[in-house]
Amino acid sequence: MLRRALLALALLAAPAAAQEGPVTSERATFRVTTFATGLERPWGAVFLPDGTMLVTERPGRLRRIGTDGRVSAPLGGVPQVDANGQGGLLDIALAPDFARTREVFLCQSALVEGGSLTRLVVARLSPSADTLTGVRRIIDAGPPQESGRLHYGCRIAFGPEGHIFLSTGERNERARAQRLDDLAGKVLRLTRDGRVPPDNPFVGHAGARPEIWSYGHRHPQGLAFNPWTGSLWEAEFGPRGGDEINVIRRGANYGWPVVSHGREYWGPRISREVSAPGMEDPIHVWVPSVSPSGITFYDGAAFPGWRGSLFAAAQSTPGLVRLTTDGDRVTGEERLFWGKIAFRHQVVGPDGRLYLLTDENEGRILRLDPA
């Protein structure tokens, strides 16, 4: 049964420190703390081993946030991005062996000859954590597109074997999602240095890009491995309704735009069918839309009742969605902050608390503390 835990608007507007009054949700009671302010459209975040945080800002800046919430000046060495439309500096991920290599992976929109595209780069974080060095391109998810600056996807996840998974949007050109000679509208799988693993599903297939792991995606901004099953979960924006949670399988076609639960923005259905032979069905669908961005599995100690949950940052209606799961199934849904504020992503801190990135020009990071 769907229940909504609504926070008072004053809770979100109050500055700094712990806010007034505990909030009781289905499986946890928490307070909201404004952990950091002064960010512009924060998009992706990771915790460093020392407990500080790196946060991307969509206009093209990377910041370090101290354990006290202080926001640094922009880091040096960040690659230039095409910060137009939905593009900019988007996701960030640390290499699994970051403590040794200092490698940081960034997903961005890039302007190249012929238009713009989704790009994955790697760099090293300086010992002082104030500069990126040795920036190197891993892949350009081409071909580039001259028109529009929409649907880049751009979420990064490391698999248990150390390979990189990268989501790419279809750039609002629907046919690209079904084309196997095109890297848009896909989930890609690569080695850390950009090579194609020999067991990728389309290796050796004429006319197909070997980097592709799955296809038929619209605008996937959520990507995370289920720590209990090892499977890769993905969230993608539908149009007007039809947002999806998918379990990503090797070589599978997820149907966009051939099948969809969504409608055109002016009313009619995208497709007559919501399912078809040879195409994977989503495990969870939202109609009407919530516009899910980043997704995060919760396995921290601060909120024992939330263990096993998948959190999804929601854009429209703004808020935070918590999905209960059983293996690779969604078993329930709870909505927090509903109708109050849009979130872009959330991360679990070393302290087990949940840190929420607000999708605002005057962006903040809110922290949920046990009450």
Automatic annotation (TrEMBL):
First and last residue of the signal peptide: 1-18
UniProt keyword Signal, yes or no: yes
InterPro entries referenced in this protein's UniProt entry, alphabetically: 6-blade_b-propeller_TolB-like, Glc/Sorbosone_DH, Quinoprot_gluc/sorb_DH_b-prop
Pfam families linked to this entry: GSDH
Superkingdom to which the source organism belongs: Bacteria
Domain Glucose/Sorbosone dehydrogenase: 39-367
Keyword entries, A-Z: Signal
This protein's record includes keyword Nucleus: no
Name this protein carries in UniProt: PQQ-dependent sugar dehydrogenase
Species assigned in the record: Neoroseomonas marina
Lineage of source species: Bacteria, Pseudomonadati, Pseudomonadota, Alphaproteobacteria, Acetobacterales
